[in-house]
């Protein structure tokens, strides 16, 4: 019997991946860049056991057993349209690819496996759960089958952004140009310790499952948005170099400007999609306003928001303004629940229904600083 356990954190993109040029191989139309958070608050955990006594493969996701029908493997690999459980399809494909890359003389290679995966945060709520989940699965399988070397390309096949969670720190996913997808891999550009003062706050506006998953949303955008092509061809190539430089130089003002512009452009594309896929809600927009008020008051960008395919805000900021900004958030959005915190990453749930809009409007930041 052999057992491995892996833990993988979520990553929060500052240059968003949105749109594929190859649906099957999950090849993106643009480069993207993210920071992988520490594993303390939001992460996925996967344990895999293999034993000669197991009669069939088993899979549990967040405590619920999922049907894991191996007979489908052949169909999965040949069918062009995925009209069944996408997660199981990806899981079977990933196992197949990891085994293909390992040493085929491993004594336990043909034993059945039992996989137990869980996220310690809401799944499919636009909180990058699939990225952490797939990165964790691939990492655990690679450990089980003793693979060294590139695995981000396999993680990419689960969910595109998962390839970035395979590495810690600041990570760039190069879109690549080859049709085989071999060069569409993630590469770290700087370690987490490169910018030790950087913090991320996750403001949980709503943790329900989102209406349109990212796969459906981005496919519709590629089919119907005219803005998406402009972004991938004329904006991202320069923008990604600029943010790369800002990160390497630890230039927060520039980093924040690019991060917010890219989040806004991504959501503009969602709105330009027909019919539109709206992910942000009124609370999300209230957070955007708050951040701009705060930065204006500070006369420089001290805080940056970014929103994935959901209403929840991810706030990048430096340790020096963390307490002040948090107290303002608590003031504007009362009734905060527990603040989960450590010194690298903090999560803060908000109550969606209670926003003091009038306070937002005449916000006197000087008072709040006291
Ligand atoms: O990897 P997916 O298919 O879950 O898509 C992720 C898309 C965004 O989260 C919106 C952007 C990103 O780069 O993470």
TrEMBL record:
One of its GO terms (biological process) is isopentenyl diphosphate biosynthetic process, mevalonate pathway. Residues 200-370 form the Mvd1 C-terminal domain. The keyword Lyase applies. InterPro entries: GHMP_kinase_C_sf (IPR036554), Mev_decarb (IPR005935), Mev_diP_decarb (IPR029765), MVD-like_N (IPR053859), Mvd1_C (IPR041431), Ribosomal_Su5_D2-typ_SF (IPR020568), Ribsml_uS5_D2-typ_fold_subgr (IPR014721). Keywords: ATP-binding, Cholesterol biosynthesis, Cholesterol metabolism, Lipid biosynthesis, Lipid metabolism, Lyase, Nucleotide-binding, Steroid biosynthesis, Steroid metabolism, Sterol biosynthesis, Sterol metabolism. It catalyses: (R)-5-diphosphomevalonate + ATP = isopentenyl diphosphate + ADP + phosphate + CO2. The keyword Plastid does not apply. Its EC number is 4.1.1.33. GO terms for molecular function: ATP binding; diphosphomevalonate decarboxylase activity. Residues 8-186 form the Diphosphomevalonate decarboxylase-like N-terminal domain. Pathway: Steroid biosynthesis; cholesterol biosynthesis. Pfam families: MDD_C, MVD-like_N. GO terms for cellular component: cytosol. PANTHER family: DIPHOSPHOMEVALONATE DECARBOXYLASE. Catalyzes the ATP dependent decarboxylation of (R)-5-diphosphomevalonate to form isopentenyl diphosphate (IPP). Functions in the mevalonate (MVA) pathway leading to isopentenyl diphosphate (IPP), a key precursor for the biosynthesis of isoprenoids and sterol synthesis. Belongs to the diphosphomevalonate decarboxylase family. This is Diphosphomevalonate decarboxylase. It comes from Sitophilus oryzae. The gene is LOC115887477.
């Amino acid at each position: 019997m052999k057992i491995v356990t892996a833990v993988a954190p979520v990553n929060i993109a500052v240059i968003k991946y949105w749109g594929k040029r190859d649906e099957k191989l999950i090849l993106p139309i643009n480069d993207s860049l993210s920071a992988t958070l520490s594993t303390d608050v939001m992460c996925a955990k996967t344990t895999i056991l293999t034993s000669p006594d197991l009669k069939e493969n088993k899979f549990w996701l967040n405590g619920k057993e999922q049907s894991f029908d191996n007979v489908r493997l052949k169909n999965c690999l040949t069918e062009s349209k995925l009209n069944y459980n996408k997660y199981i399809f990806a899981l079977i494909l990933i196992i197949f690819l990891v085994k293909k890359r390992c040493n085929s003389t491993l004594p336990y290679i043909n034993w059945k496996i039992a996989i137990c995966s869980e996220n310690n945060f809401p799944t499919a709520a636009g909180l990058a759960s699939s990225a952490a989940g797939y990165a964790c699965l691939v990492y655990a399988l690679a450990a089980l089958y003793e693979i060294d070397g590139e695995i981000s390309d396999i993680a990419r096949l689960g969910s595109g952004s998962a390839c970035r969670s395979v590495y810690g720190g600041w990570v760039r996913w190069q879109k690549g140009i080859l049709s085989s997808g071999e060069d569409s891999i993630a590469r770290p550009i700087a370690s987490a310790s490169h910018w030790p003062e950087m913090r991320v706050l996750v403001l949980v506006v709503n943790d329900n499952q989102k209406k349109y998953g990212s796969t459906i949303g981005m496919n519709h955008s590629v089919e119907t948005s005219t803005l998406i092509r402009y972004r991938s061809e004329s904006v991202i190539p320069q923008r990604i170099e600029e943010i790369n430089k800002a990160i390497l130089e630890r230039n927060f003002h520039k980093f924040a400007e690019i991060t917010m512009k890219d989040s806004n452009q991504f959501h503009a594309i969602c709105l330009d999609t027909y019919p539109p896929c709206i992910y942000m809600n009124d609370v999300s927009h209230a957070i955007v306003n708050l951040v701009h008020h705060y930065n204006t008051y500070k006369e420089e960008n001290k805080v940056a928001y970014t929103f994935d395919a959901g209403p929840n805000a991810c706030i990048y900021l430096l340790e020096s303004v963390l307490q002040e900004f948090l107290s303002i958030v608590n003031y504007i959005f009362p009734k905060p629940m527990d603040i989960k915190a450590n010194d690298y990453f903090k999560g803060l749930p908000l109550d969606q229904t209670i926003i003091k809009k009038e306070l937002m409007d005449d916000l006197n930041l000087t008072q709040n600083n006291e």
